[in-house]
Amino acid sequence: SNQGFAGGSASNTNGGGGGGGAGAVGVSTTSANAGAGGSGVASSITGSSVTRGGGGGGATYNGTQASGGSGGGGQGGKQSPVSQGSSGTANTGGGAGGKYATLPHNTGGSGVVILRMATADYSGTTTGSPTESTSGSDTILVYNGDGSYTA
After folding, report:
1. Please, what's the b/e burial string for 22-60 (b: 16 or more CB within 10 A of its CB; e: otherwise)?
2. How many of the other CB atoms lie within 10 Å of CB of 103?
3. I want to staple 35 with a disulfide (CB 3.0 to 4.6 A). Which of 14, 15, 27, 95 is the partner?
4. Alpha helices in 21-146 (DSSP H)
5. What is the rounded CA–CA span in Å between residue 35 and residue 59?
C-alpha cells in the first residue's frame, strides 16, 4: 500500500543519487560515489516474509557503484572502467539500477499481485496461472503474469 519514497540527490556530476524504495528514500551523494537505492518493504502475505519494492542504485562515472535497495533494486552502473548496472529483480517491483551516459538501459522488476482470502470463501475460479497455496485457514493466489480471480 505504500506509494514509495523520493530518490536521493546528487551534488557532484560524477555520482548519482539512489532511487527511492517503498520503505525509504534513496541515498544522496556529494562525491563521485553513487548513492544506494532505498529499501523496500517486507510482507508476510504469502506465509513467509518477502521484501519487495527496493529502489535502484545510482550510477557513477568513476566512483563506487551503488547497490540497489533490499527488495529487488538493481545495482547502478559505472562508466570508467565500464561496468553495467543491473535490472530490478523480477516479481518484486524493484527499480532498475542507474546507467551512466553510454551504457545500455536497465529495466525495473516486474510486479506481482497477491490475493489472500479465507479458504471457506475461495471460489476456485481463476484464469491465467496463479500459484496457489494455503497458510492456516487461508488460500493464497500469486499472479506473476496475466490472470483473474472471480469470487
Report:
1. bbbbbbbbeeebbbbbbbbbebeebeeebbbbbbbbbbb
2. 18
3. 27
4. none
5. 8
Rounded-to-integer distance, Cα 77 and Cα 102, Å: 10
Residue 52 and residue 81 in contact, taking contact as beta carbons nearer than 8 Å: no
Name the percent of the chain lying above pLDDT 70: 99
Per-residue model confidence (pLDDT) at position 100: 82
pLDDT in tens, 3-48: 789 999 998 778 999 999 999 999 999 999 999 999 999 999 999 9
Cβ atoms 88, 95 nearer than 8 A: yes
Backbone CA torsion sign across 20, 25, 27, 29: positive
Which pLDDT score is estimated for 89? 97
Cell of 31: 562525491
Q: Report the pLDDT value the prediction gives residue 1, as an integer from 0 to 100.
A: 54
- Whether the CB-CB separation of 62 and 77 falls below 8 Å is answered with no
Site of grid cell 508476510 = 44
